[in-house]
User: Which sequence fits this backbone?
């Protein structure tokens, strides 16, 4: 099993709250289109 450190995962900055967020397994197939860190930020865009 391949192990990756959290510090090695790609990250983005949320345009709503300006916080950085890291890649998650559930975003594996559409990471390029993810813009917001949470559902709350997505609703308050």
Assistant:
């Amino acid at each position: 099993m391949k192990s990756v450190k959290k510090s090695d995962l790609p990250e983005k900055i949320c345009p709503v709250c300006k916080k950085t967020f890291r890649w998650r397994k559930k975003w594996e197939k559409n990471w390029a289109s993810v813009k917001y860190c949470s559902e709350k930020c997505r609703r308050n865009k």
Summary: Helices lie at 39-43. The chain has a mean pLDDT of 91. The beta strands are 11-13, 20-22. DSSP finds one helix and two strands in the chain.
